[in-house]
Amino acid sequence: xxxxxxxxxxxxxxxxxxxxxxxxxxxxxxxxxxxxxxxxxxxxxxxxxxxxxxxxxxxxxxxxxxxxxxxxxxxxxxxxxxxxxxxxxxxxxxxxxxxxxxxxxxxxxxxxxxxxxxxxxxxxxxxxxxxxxxxxxxxxxxxxxxxxxxxxxxxxxxxxxxxxxxxxxxxxxxxxxxxxxxxxxxxxxxxxxxxxxxxxxxxxxxxxxxxxxxxxxxxxxxxxxxxxxxxxxxxxxxxxxxxxxxxxxxxxxxxxxxxxxxxxxx
Length: 266
Fold this sequence. Notes:
The protein is built from one helix and 20 strands. By secondary structure, the chain is mostly beta strands.
């Protein structure tokens, strides 16, 4: 028996409290080990169903440009133009939505576009996030479609919006660094000095409790500073790779190439 029947109530109470403390501490240690062990590097040779979820929902209708997330708009271990490597290729187009509208519907909600959507299942709180990629571009070498929006982000809306996102619209010589700790976007748009549609570069951010260092090709391009647990995102978030349409007239298909993604928990 853990305690004898002759133990006093106070002794029992103290022993039980100590037992609970040891148990809670053990659980916290296990959780901490689990979280820190989840750092990963992925070159997308295959679809890793224990790490990522391939989207199948209607997405981003609140932005006025719904798209249907479809597994057939993701290609793993695909050859990458301008590279000897292989990786993950996203497609954004109107197939099969324009010819088979029901293929891009969920119940009564339908989309005019289809694309790939790849979301990490692992929640992170602070860390280093990197992705080597060639952002959304025309698969034929034509101009970048005006309806293209590329993002590498980490996100949650539980219990409210926390997010950090690196994004590009059709002005592919600029980069958007954005973050949310509430429902208001905090964003800076900076020139890159190159056209991100033309070749692979490494983009990312280092997320600390009181700041976010935004990084391009291992150089800090900008730092967002704030108050820990208040004005810098402070909830567990999940990385997402996404190529989606904008609420502008359709201007052609787009492709995004991702060579690898690396996340290191702090």
